[in-house]
């Protein structure tokens, strides 16, 4: 049982066939179905295998080309899981429709780093200024409405974490940090992001708990260091503990400033080096999953064992 609350609502998941959208859609359609008997998912192609998988689970498929007023009609919860490019294309119409329909809660498409604290003066990766504009426009459009806007930051997707571009080379068994290898990286599995969104939706719909859900919040299934990833790989794969290397954060960051690469991994690697992806001191894990009583957060070790 995901929750003792008996609230029920209708949810629309925009981009619900996507990388993170699919994980969120599945969780609403299965573990949280008792709270959300109607789950609408937008797609450009209702015949795609992912859309069809969701339809079989009971999703009401709606074409992205339909009017958002129709798609969102009668909806209590809107989850925007579009990528930034799509939001820039449809955002004005979408936000105007959200303001008209007035759902109880609207999750903007965040699910990444906490870029509020970025310090890339004059050389920031363009993804984050674009997201800031989307957030500002959405806040302005919803000003004075009853809709609660929620910006959920989740760190790096767990299935996206093992990347040589972040210094995590599992194949070569080499782990390269910018600065200390004890720096931690917030990471959350897609299904746990789905569970967190679903749980926040339930809390937001229940009048007894609605006020406990803040606009800005971050979660992390695990805050894991380079050393801990190295150790987990050794345990799971039965290989010797890999090599830890450390590069100068200052040097890498100055080079990035002088020659911006446009590769988002370079910027995220700096954020990790600066400790800005360590969510262990401030997170809403206890709000969404008190004492892990609702589910056990997936870890790097689970990902390596392929048990996700
Ligand atoms: N933390 C991390 O590690 C991480 C990693 C990646 C992304 N993210 C974040 O997660 C959020 C969602 O990104 P995502 O990668 O999951 O999205 P995505 O898979 O690229 O897109 C989501 C869905 O949007 C629809 N779509 C794509 N392009 C479209 C277009 N031009 N017009 C209309 N619909 C379109 C597609 O559905 P149909 O094909 O069914 O129409 C797609 O399945 C973003 O905010 C992103 O920044 C975080």
From TrEMBL:
InterPro entries: NAD(P)-bd_dom_sf, NmrA-like, NmrA/Isoflavone_reductase-like. It comes from the Eukaryota. Keywords: NADP, Oxidoreductase. This is NmrA-like domain-containing protein. Gene3D superfamilies: NAD(P)-binding Rossmann-like Domain (3.40.50.720). GO terms for molecular function: oxidoreductase activity. Pfam families: NmrA (PF05368). It comes from Polyporus arcularius HHB13444. Residues 8-238 form the NmrA-like domain.
């Amino acid at each position: 049982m995901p929750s003792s609350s008996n609230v029920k609502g209708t949810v629309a998941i925009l981009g619900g066939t996507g990388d993170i959208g699919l994980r969120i859609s599945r969780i609403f359609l299965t573990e949280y179905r008792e709270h959300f008997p109607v789950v609408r998912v937008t797609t450009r192609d209702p015949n795609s295998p992912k859309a069809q998988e969701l339809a079989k689970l009971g999703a009401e498929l709606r074409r992205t080309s339909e009017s958002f007023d129709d798609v969102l009609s009668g909806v209590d919860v809107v989850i925007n899981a579009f990528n930034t490019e799509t939001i820039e294309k449809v955002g004005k119409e979408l936000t105007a429709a959200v303001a008209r329909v007035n759902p109880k809660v609207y999750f903007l498409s965040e699910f990444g780093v906490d870029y509020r604290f970025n310090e890339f003066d004059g050389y920031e990766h363009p993804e984050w200024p674009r997201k800031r504009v989307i957030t500002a426009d959405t806040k302005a459009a919803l000003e004075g409405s009853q809709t609660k806007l929620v910006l959920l930051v989740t760190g790096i997707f767990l299935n996206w974490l093992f990347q040589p571009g972040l210094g995590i080379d599992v194949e070569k068994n080499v782990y390269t940090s910018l600065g200390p290898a004890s720096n931690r990286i917030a990471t959350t599995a897609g299904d746990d992001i789905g569970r967190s969104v679903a749980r926040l939706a339930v809390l937001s719909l229940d009048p007894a708990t609605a006020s406990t859900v803040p606009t800005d919040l971050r979660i992390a299934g695990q805050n894991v260091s380079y050393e801990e990833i190295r150790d987990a790989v050794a345990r799971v794969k039965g290989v010797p503990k890999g090599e830890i290397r450390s590069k100068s954060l200052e040097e890498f960051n100055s080079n990035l400033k002088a020659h911006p690469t446009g590769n988002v991994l370079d910027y995220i690697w700096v954020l990790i080096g600066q400790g800005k992806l360590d969510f262990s001191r401030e997170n809403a894990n206890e709000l969404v999953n008190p004492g892990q009583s609702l589910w056990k957060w997936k870890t790097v070790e689970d990902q390596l064992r392929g048990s996700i």
